[in-house]
Amino acid sequence: MIGRLLKKRSEDVGCTVEVSNTFDSLHAHVRFDGGVTVEPGDEVLVHGAPVEVPYGETACIRRRATIRRAGWLERAWTRATGDFEFMELCEFSFSERATL
């Protein structure tokens, strides 16, 4: 019973990695083939060499990705604690002047 709650399954899917390194945008997105989505607690490993895009350029690269699906217990834990982890990334300031 416990093993089934913790068991993880994996699937390999094709994906497109889009990377932009321009003045207007610095981002990287992964889009999975066939409408595959990831859920809280899932882990994604994109295979292949690191993508390096020179400043001022964008690139779209085809790759394979392995998605390791979270078990029921891990998914529930991630949903329950995710907001707290997000707050660690935020920085708040209540001072009257901004300093750099």
UniProtKB/TrEMBL annotation:
Stated name of the protein: Uncharacterized protein
